[in-house]
Amino acid sequence: MIKRTQIETIKNSLKHFPIVGILGSRQVGKTTLAKELLKRHKNVIYLDLELTSDVNKLQAPEIYLQQHKNEMVIIDEIQRLPELFPLLRALVDQNKNNGQFLVLGSASPALIKKLSESLAGRIIYHELTPFIISEINNKNNQIKKLWLRGGYPKSFLAPNDLISAQWREAFIKTHLERDIPQLNINTSSITLRRFLTMVAHNHASLWNTSNIARSLGVSAPSVKRYLDIFTDTFIVRQLQPYFINIKKRLIKSPKVYIRDTGLLHALLNIYDLEKLQAHTIIGASWEGFIIEQLINIAPEHWESYFYRTNSGAEIDLLFLTNNLEPVAIEIKYSLSPKISKGFWQATEDIKCKKKFILYPGQESYKIKNDVEILSVNDFDKIFY
């Protein structure tokens, strides 16, 4: 079993907050992590709101939860019963104990936080992502395996690439045919599959709503709604552009990424490293893989953007630190990375002192103008 890096942080939160939330995509390991966290707790109640039998237990939720006030209660898929949130507030205010409830959700943080506004000051959230590089054993091409298969546990840990590919295809099918309709989205799974495949083909590119709408044969508002649906369910990342007060013509559209490269490759029918190496998506795929890794391990409150001007100045990933210091990152899929003129220009535009080039090699080293070339094993140098 792969130990998740967040487990100690979540344990600590249970000591200091009455309610702890773990958010993340379906099948990412939230339930497994929750049960691992609570192995040492003797009195635990687990409720899965996808099971009719468990939902029935909550027909009179106040009575049921009061009966278990001395036990920790795990509520899985909490977004399915949003009316529980005000009740949880009343219960934790009455009992005054930390670690009373552990709630798991597969809707977006924005949606869950909106539903749980009444719990302000009583709940802390953690997002559980697919496996990241620091969680796997970097031997025998494990990073390449993570890149190819993605980090969903059943995909990454599958006995071979074929089984992994079959799992990812089943995951996509279930997400389109079951999970999204449960969010009261009345769009055919065929249309959503076509849309998601278009996102995959535009991975790491500027998003053009009008072009996608025209290709799909639907309205621009429909395309925006589809994109938001997949963003809210942790499938797509919209990386926003960074704006500063300079006299430049800046790009204003977001860049889009399929967050898990295993799902990206499944949508593009890429199921082994040989096919990935030969595919035109390889550079964009690597860029998205690295960006997702970095955002997932960045310190809390660091903000992530990209930067691009119409004249060609560009930064693949731009972090703003807690003190608003910009950190510029360029991502190259090359063992001999060459820094583009656009990167130099962009870092001059926004006065970046910290500049990094990330590449798939093994050695990290510094070059001119305080730029550091980093291997995937030295990501943490960015954050200190």
From TrEMBL:
SUPFAM superfamilies: P-loop containing nucleoside triphosphate hydrolases. Gene3D superfamilies: P-loop containing nucleotide triphosphate hydrolases (3.40.50.300). InterPro entries: AAA+_ATPase (IPR003593), AAA_14 (IPR041682), DUF4143 (IPR025420), P-loop_NTPase (IPR027417). Residues 16-130 form the AAA+ ATPase domain. SMART domains: AAA (SM00382). PANTHER family: CONSERVED PROTEIN (PTHR43566), DUF4143 DOMAIN-CONTAINING PROTEIN (PTHR43566:SF2). This is ATPase. It comes from Candidatus Kerfeldbacteria bacterium RIFOXYB2_FULL_38_14.
